[in-house]
Amino acid sequence: MLVVMKHGASASQIEEVVATIKEMGYGARPIPGEQRTAVGLIGNDGAVDSGRLLGLDGVLEVIPVTHPYKQVSREWREADTVVTLANGTRIGGSEIVVMAGPCAVEGEAQILDIAHRLRAMGATVLRGGAFKPRTSPYAFQGLGRAGLEQLAKAREETGLAIVTEALDPEGADLVAEYADIIQIGARNMQNYPLLRRAGKTGKPVLLKRGLAATIDELLLAAEYILAEGNDHVILCERGIRSFDTHTRNLLDLTAIPVVKALSHLPIIADPSHGTGLRAKVIPMGRAAVAAGADGLIVEVHQNPPKAMSDGAQSLLPDQFAELMTQITVIARAIGRGVTPSLVRGRTG
Ligand code: PEP
Ligand code: MN
């Protein structure tokens, strides 16, 4: 439920609403807006008697939030959320942000080399898993803390922000020490202790859609992070399971405009895991930008056949350059831009 204050309501009237909600046994979260301030009521599981709140001075109206998720909804916050990273990159604004890098950090020389190349081509965020959730327990599981240290070194040298995955709650704390964005992978989208812990770190979180998750389930998973007081959440459409065997997953591009209508949170697309095939990454990356994605996360490797994971879907550096050129044109056609490379000196 949302208590909307009258235009020009005083601070003490807002405080009175907060105090009353707390007295009623719920949590209260003031949401200042350009036109109006609202106070969100949280912690209820069912209907709340709004009579007492409607009678308070300065209250314009009380709006029930009709979705099972609250804080992620557009009803709760009308304006788009923009997540700002330490290097100045803004995700969810008018410019499209490109995150790129190998599936996994494989060693210092590899990650430093690709980081420099990606920065020169216009990426602003470096991806790379240090903890890898692999389908087989015998497959490469990542370099762990050493991988995080190598990512941090790459950030130091290039100014790129870092996004990397955490697999469990303890891992979220560790990843938060190094990364600019904590990635929660598709397999962990409904790992609620992990979602809560990532929320508690206060760091930006990249939440990937589960392999068989509905859009409502994705938004409810995000709600767990916001419920911890952390609204720096970026959603990611990364493909869902389908019956077709021609691609690894079905990249659900419709989810982008659907999420945009339901939620104020930014949403990016992952055409690498979404297709599983190098030759399909550029077309689907273009399509995701055209569909309104706030950014892309793309796997790029200097030598894909030798990659320790996901080589078949990793772009070659030259292909990444081609993707950047093409999405810049598409972004312009829909009134957006692509976050300029740090090398061109616009961010940092
Ligand atoms: C990844 O980004 O490398 C990854 C494992 O992604 P997902 O969780 O979407 O499978
Ligand atoms: Mn991967």
Largest sheet: 9 strands, parallel
- Rg value: 21 Å
Task: Identify low-pLDDT runs.
Answer: 343-348
Number of domains: 2
Question: Helix and strand string, N-terminal first?
Answer: EHEEHEEEEHEHEHEHEHEHEHHEHE
- Percent strand: 15-25%
The tally of beta strands, per DSSP, is 15
Shape: elongated
The CATH fourth-level homologous superfamily of the largest domain: Aldolase class I
CATH architecture descriptor text of the largest domain? Alpha-Beta Barrel
SS summary, helix count: 11
What is the arithmetic mean of pLDDT?
A: 95
CATH structural fold name of the largest domain: TIM Barrel
Determine the structural class based on helices, strands and strand pairing: alpha/beta
Describe what this molecule looks like in 3D.
With 348 residues, this protein is α/β, with parallel strands linked by helices. The chain folds into two domains: 2-63, Phospho-2-dehydro-3-deoxyheptonate aldolase, domain 1 (Alpha-Beta Plaits); 83-338, Aldolase class I (TIM Barrel, Alpha-Beta Barrel), CATH 3.20.20.70. It is 34% helix and 18% strand. The chain has helices at 11-23, 51-54, 108-121, 145-158, 169-178, 192-201, 215-226, 255-262, 271-275, 278-290, 317-333; strands at 2-5, 27-32, 37-42, 59-63, 83-84, 90-91, 95-101, 125-127, 161-165, 181-184, 205-208, 233-237, 267-269, 295-299, 337-338. Strands 7, 8, 9, 10, 11, 12, 13, 14 and 15 form a nine-stranded parallel β-sheet that branches. A four-stranded antiparallel β-sheet has the order 2-3-1-4, with helices on one face. The longest helix has 17 residues, at 317-333. The protein is elongated, with a radius of gyration of 21 Å. It binds phosphoenolpyruvate and manganese (II) ion. The site of manganese (II) ion has 5 residues, from loops. The site of phosphoenolpyruvate has 10 residues, from loops.
